[in-house]
From TrEMBL:
<feature type="signal peptide">
    <location>
        <begin position="1"/>
        <end position="22"/>
    </location>
</feature>
<dbReference type="Pfam" id="PF03572">
    <property type="entry name" value="Peptidase_S41"/>
</dbReference>
<feature type="domain" description="Tail specific protease">
    <location>
        <begin position="285"/>
        <end position="492"/>
    </location>
</feature>
<keyword id="KW-0732">Signal</keyword>
<dbReference type="InterPro" id="IPR029045">
    <property type="entry name" value="ClpP/crotonase-like_dom_sf"/>
</dbReference>
<dbReference type="InterPro" id="IPR005151">
    <property type="entry name" value="Tail-specific_protease"/>
</dbReference>
<protein>
    <submittedName>
        <fullName>Peptidase S41</fullName>
    </submittedName>
</protein>
Length: 515
């Protein structure tokens, strides 16, 4: 018998052992998968999906942004009809992921009951090492004696790399139709809890891979680890000298440095440094920006790189502030913002959970939330409530304005307020060159601002969406198609050669153009 057949038989035995571990828990155990991943009846799932559609129709202003009512009704009806037998909560959860993803909003989020998530996080079933997406491939990013860094992963537990990546697309929603974040997140973000939700619990992982610059297929069996061990290995990943520099959790929300007499670098890692203009942290941020542009003007710096890669978003009016130094035209956050229900009456309040999936909202906070919505969206007419224009001020150019060359660095993880910032830069800054990868957040519009979370009665799965539909202050651009994120002038993905040399491919591209 040849090695290929041996591997196939071993893989089948391994899958059988995974299935035993995932399904063979004592039903009476106090802490078992059977307890948390309960079976749902056909009737229960049908009811949850009908409630989910009703909630979305009433409260979700972005439901029909990219698909017609007929299309939305069709996908729900087809899904309901396809459920003809009992199903585990995790299998039903995957169905709900497809529905949330189909809608086309980066602010959609779906999560199973927290007891199930907490149970999975307690298991010694995690993939041990970090992986990274490079050139459409799964690349080993760990530093260990098991597999060399930079190796291409061909399969895990008998599932090939292309199929693995595709299976995780549904976990990552995007504005419109773009899939850039899905591609990288299917590797960079998927081999923690999402792998357990998608493929169940396993004691070990069979890895088939090619070592760097090798075509021969090798095999390694890695034991599963705890979440704590996995997180320690992630900190020690091979790519850390580059990837840590654009990690908003590890870097300051904003920083500036002079690269050379002709070039400055403004890093904007997160726009959540202040919750609004009355936050004590807002004024230091404004003063910081003023000092940066004063320095640029004083020293006659001709090139400014603005790096917002991996910026997940944040709050008004943080993201508008830098734009005022980059344009000579006034602008607004949006030209129209609406919700689709009367803010005096919260839709389907009996299923309402809160504004975060991690904590249920109490009655006092709920009352305050309603008062806020009534203030911001005061008049309900013709099935919409328009935004009070006092919350949509005009932003005017600030002095000293930057007149040199602007280079905006974006990537597939730029979302929400950060993609809105990039949209304003593309719309209102004349001398800008955008480099990187299409953002996950939209250029023309998005649903944002106020998230609502509902818990479905039978599955206890929570669905989150933002209720405000915003038409952004984004003029039509020939190179900016509808239903997409901010498109770069030069699409640049990280390269494998630069991975080995610890070089930042996208930054190097800009510096080379400047030189």
């Amino acid at each position: 018998m040849n090695n290929k057949n041996l591997i196939s038989i071993f893989t089948l035995l391994f899958f059988f052992s995974c299935k035993i571990q995932a399904q063979g828990f004592d039903k009476n155990a106090k802490d078992s998968l059977m307890l948390y991943n309960k079976m749902l009846s056909e009737k229960q799932m049908h009811q949850d999906l009908k409630i989910l559609l009703a909630i979305n129709e009433k409260a979700n202003s972005g439901l029909y942004q990219y698909h017609s009512k007929k299309q939305i009704d069709s996908i729900y009806n087809t899904t309901i009809k396809s459920i003809k037998k009992p199903m585990s909560t995790t299998d039903f959860y995957k169905i709900m992921l497809h529905l949330a993803d189909y809608e086309g909003s980066a602010h959609n989020y779906t999560i199973p009951d927290l007891d199930l998530i907490n149970f999975l996080n307690r298991q010694k079933s995690f993939f041990p090492y970090p992986l990274i997406y490079v050139n459409g491939q799964i690349i080993f990013d760990g530093q260990s004696s098991d597999i060399p860094p930079g190796s291409r992963i061909r399969s895990i537990n008998g599932i090939n790399d292309a199929q693995l990546m595709r299976s995780f697309y549904k976990y990552y929603t995007a504005d419109g139709y773009n899939i850039t974040q899905k591609k990288s997140a299917s590797v960079n973000k998927s081999f923690g809890i999402n792998y357990l939700l998608e493929y169940g619990l396993c004691n070990e992982f069979i890895i088939e891979y090619n070592s760097p610059k090798s075509e021969s297929l090798e095999k390694k069996i890695l034991p599963a680890v705890t979440l704590k061990q996995r997180e320690a290995n992630i900190k020690n990943r091979f790519s850390a000298p580059v990837t840590d520099l654009i990690d908003y959790k590890k870097q300051s929300p904003y920083s500036f440095r002079v690269l050379n007499p002709a070039t400055g670098l403004l890093n904007l890692r997160w726009f959540g440094m202040a919750y609004g203009s009355d936050d004590p942290k807002f004024e230091p941020y404004v003063q910081f920006l003023d000092s940066v542009f004063t320095e640029l003007d004083k020293n006659k710096v001709s090139n400014l790189i603005i790096d917002v890669r991996n910026n997940p978003g944040g709050s008004d009016p943080n993201f508008e502030q830098p734009v005022m130094y980059l344009t000579d035209k006034p602008f607004k956050e949006n030209v129209k913002a609406t919700i689709t229900f009367d803010p005096h009456f919260l839709p389907f309040e009996n299923y309402f959970w809160g504004v975060s999936t991690s904590q249920r909202m109490d009655s006092v906070s709920k009352k305050m939330g309603k008062e806020y919505l009534k203030d911001v969206y005061p008049v309900f007419k013709n099935n919409i409530s328009l935004q009070n224009q006092k919350y949509n001020p005009v932003y005017y150019p600030k002095s000293p304005g930057f007149k040199g060359n602007v280079y905006l660095l974006i990537n597939e993880n730029v979302a929400s307020a950060a993609s809105h910032f990039a949209s304003l830069v593309k719309a209102y800054v004349q001398n800008v060159t955008i480099v990187g990868v299409e953002t996950v957040g939209g250029y023309y519009r998005h649903n944002g601002h106020s998230p609502l979370v509902y818990e479905l009665p039978n599955s206890k799965i929570k669905t989150q969406f933002s209720i405000v539909n915003l038409v952004q202050d984004a003029p039509k651009k020939d190179n900016q198609p509808e239903g997409h994120g901010i498109m770069p002038d030069y699409e640049v993905w990280p390269s494998l050669d630069d991975f080995f040399q610890h070089k930042d491919t996208q930054m190097e591209f800009i510096l080379k153009r400047i030189r």
